[in-house]
User: Fold this.
Amino acid sequence: MGQIIKTRKHYEYQQEDGKTTAWFPHIEEKMELSHESIPAYKKIFYILIGLGLLFLSLVFTLVH
Assistant:
């Protein structure tokens, strides 16, 4: 895995062997999109995960 090194004018991505493969003028901060949660979606999500696990358990037990 390479590493990102900051120089005076930009950032450089260098591979393990020291070869520079990319230059970035700037690296932006991590941006997060936050929103209000919808309770019904959480319930639907858990129901679908449960049904998926039930289906997989049936498939794994009935197929030899």
Observations:
- Residues 39-62 form the longest helix (24 residues).
- The first strand starts at residue 3 and ends at 6.
